[in-house]
C-alpha cells in the first residue's frame, strides 16, 4: 500500500461575480462573463461543501458521473478554458488602469491547504487575497492537480494503468505551474504572507510527489506480473529518489514560506522511508536468491534499524508503515534461522554492504492549457 495525503485538495475560496466587476460593452460579453461566474460557482460550492444539490441531482448534472472527484474535474475542465480566455483578453488591454482596478475589485480569495494554520482551522481557514487573475488561474490549476491525485487514489484497486496515468497527468500539470511561475504573480509573492501554492518550488515538489506515486502504482502492477525482485528493489529505490529530490526542494521552500504544514513534510519523509524500506527488503531477497545470505541479513538489519527510527505519527500512515516493519522483521527472522541451521555465513558490517541503485521509469504527461476563443469587449 501507498501512504495517502489528500490535503492539497482541501482548498477553499470565496465567491466571485465577474459581470458585476468587469464592464461589458455588448450583450455577448455580458453573457460570457455570466457563464464564467456560473461555472465558477459550481466549483466554489463543491470545494466549500456548501451545495444544496443532492447526490442524485449532481450525478444527473454531470452526465452520470458517480465519483465526487470526477464531478469536480468536469467542472474545472469547463471553467478553465473560459478563465484562460478572460485572461487573454484582459492582457490585451492591461495597460488600461480601469482594467487593473476591476481585477482588484474581484477580491480573489483562496485559502491554503498546505499551511499549518489552515490545518488547525479547517472550519474557518485564513484566506489570501491577491488582485491578479493569474492568482485565480494558479489556484484553480493547483486544485485541478490535487483532484487528479484524488481520483488516481480512488481507482488504484481496480485500474492500476489508469491510476498511474492520472498521477502522471497531475505531475505534468504541476510541472507546468513550476515552469510558468506567472511572473506577475511572483511580484505579489514578495508580500510577507503568501500561500505556499503560488511558489514554483512547491509546484515542483508536487510534481515529484506525483511522479513517485505514479511509479509506486506501476510497481504494484509489476508485482502482479511477477517482475524480478531485483528490479522491484530498484523501482522502490527510484520512488525514494523522487522523494529525496522533493524533500530538498521543500526544505528550501520553507525558507520562502515559514507556515508550510508539518504534516506535508511528514508525509514526504514517511513515504520516502516506506519505499526505501520496501526497496531494501526486495534487495535482501535478491541477495539471498543469489546465495549471499550473510549480506542479505545485514541489509535487513540496517533497513529495520533505520525504518524504526522513522515511524510516522499519523495513525493511518503508521499502520501501513508498521506492517512493512513487521514483514521485514519476519523475513529477517526466517533468513537468520536458515543461516544458523544451513549456511552459517558471516554477516558483514554496514560499511561493507553493496548499495542498491534506484531506477526511475515514469515521466510527466505534459499539460496543454485550453482556451475557448471567444471575443470579449470591455467598456473602457
Instruction: Determine the strand fraction and express it as a percent band.
Output: under 5%
Low-confidence stretches: none
Helix fraction, binned, reads 55-70%
- Report on the biggest sheet: 2 strands, antiparallel
Number of helices: 13
CATH topology of the largest domain: Serine Threonine Protein Phosphatase 5, Tetratricopeptide repeat
The average pLDDT is: 92
What integer value in Å does the Rg equal?
24 Å
Structural class: mainly alpha
* Topology order in helix (H) and strand (E) letters: HHHHEHEHHHHHHHH
Q: Class of the largest domain, according to the CATH hierarchy?
A: Mainly Alpha
Q: Given the C-alpha coordinates, what overall shape results? A: elongated
Number of strands: 2
Compute the number of structural domains: 2
Query: Do you know the CATH architecture of the largest domain?
Result: Alpha Horseshoe
Strand order of the largest sheet: 1-2
Distance between the termini: 57 Å
CATH superfamily of the largest domain: alix/aip1 like domains
Describe the structure using short key phrases:
single chain, 380 residues, mainly alpha, Serine Threonine Protein Phosphatase 5, Tetratricopeptide repeat, 13 helices, 64% helix, 2% strand, BRO1_dom
What does this structure look like?
This protein has 380 residues and is mainly α. The chain folds into 2 domains: 7-273, alix/aip1 like domains (Serine Threonine Protein Phosphatase 5, Tetratricopeptide repeat), CATH 1.25.40.280; 275-352. The protein contains 13 helices and 2 strands. It has helices at residues 27-48, 55-61, 68-92, 97-105, 116-119, 133-154, 160-180, 183-188, 200-224, 229-256, 262-289, 293-309, 315-343; strands at 109-111, 127-129. A two-stranded antiparallel ribbon has the order 1-2. α1 packs antiparallel against α3 (68-92). The protein starts with 26 loop residues before the first helix and ends in a 37-residue tail after the last helix. InterPro entries: BRO1_dom (IPR004328), BRO1_sf (IPR038499), BROX (IPR038898). Residues 1-380 form the BRO1 domain. It comes from Morus notabilis. This is BRO1 domain-containing protein. Pfam families: BRO1.
Amino acid at each position: 500500500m501507498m501512504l495517502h495525503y489528500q490535503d492539497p485538495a482541501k482548498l477553499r475560496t470565496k465567491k466571485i461575480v465577474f459581470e458585476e466587476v468587469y464592464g461589458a460593452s455588448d450583450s455577448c460579453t455580458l453573457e460570457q462573463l455570466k457563464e464564467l461566474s456560473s461555472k465558477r460557482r459550481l466549483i466554489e460550492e463543491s470545494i466549500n461543501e456548501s451545495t444544496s444539490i443532492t447526490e442524485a441531482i449532481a450525478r444527473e448534472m454531470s452526465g452520470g458521473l458517480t465519483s465526487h472527484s470526477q464531478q469536480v474535474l468536469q467542472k474545472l475542465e469547463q471553467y478553465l478554458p473560459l478563465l484562460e480566455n478572460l485572461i487573454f483578453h484582459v492582457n490585451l488591454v492591461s495597460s488600461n488602469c480601469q482594467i487593473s482596478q476591476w481585477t482588484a475589485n474581484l477580491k480573489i480569495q483562496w485559502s491554503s491547504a498546505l499551511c499549518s494554520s489552515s490545518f488547525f482551522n479547517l472550519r474557518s481557514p485564513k484566506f489570501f487575497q491577491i488582485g491578479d487573475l493569474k492568482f485565480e488561474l494558479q489556484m484553480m490549476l493547483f486544485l485541478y492537480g490535487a483532484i487528479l491525485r484524488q481520483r488516481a487514489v480512488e481507482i488504484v484497486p481496480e485500474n492500476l494503468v489508469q491510476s498511474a496515468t492520472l498521477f502522471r497527468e497531475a505531475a505534468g500539470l504541476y510541472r507546468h505551474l513550476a515552469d510558468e511561475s506567472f511572473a506577475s504573480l511572483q511580484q505579489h509573492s514578495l508580500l510577507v504572507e503568501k500561500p505556499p501554492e503560488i511558489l514554483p518550488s512547491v509546484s515542483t515538489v508536487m510534481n515529484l510527489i506525483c511522479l513517485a506515486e505514479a511509479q509506486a502504482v506501476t510497481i504494484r502492477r509489476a508485482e502482479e506480473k511477477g517482475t524480478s525482485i531485483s528490479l522491484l528493489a530498484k523501482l522502490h529505490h527510484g520512488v525514494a529518489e523522487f522523494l529525496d529530490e522533493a524533500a530538498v526542494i521543500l526544505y528550501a521552500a520553507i525558507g520562502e514560506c515559514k507556515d508550510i504544514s508539518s504534516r506535508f513534510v511528514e508525509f514526504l519523509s514517511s513515504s520516502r522511508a516506506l519505499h526505501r524500506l520496501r526497496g531494501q527488503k526486495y534487495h535482501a531477497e535478491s541477495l539471498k536468491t543469489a546465495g549471499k545470505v550473510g549480506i542479505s541479513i545485514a541489509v535487513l538489519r540496517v533497513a529495520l534499524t533505520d525504518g524504526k527510527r522513522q515511524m510516522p505519527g499519523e495513525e493511518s500512515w503508521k499502520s501501513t508503515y508498521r506492517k512493512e516493519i513487521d514483514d521485514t522483521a519476519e523475513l529477517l527472522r526466517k533468513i537468520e534461522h536458515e543461516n544458523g541451521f544451513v549456511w552459517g555465513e558471516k554477516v558483514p558490517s554496514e560499511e561493507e554492504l553493496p548499495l542498491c541503485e534506484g531506477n526511475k521509469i515514469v515521466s510527466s504527461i505534459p499539460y496543454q492549457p485550453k482556451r475557448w476563443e471567444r471575443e470579449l469587449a470591455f467598456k473602457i
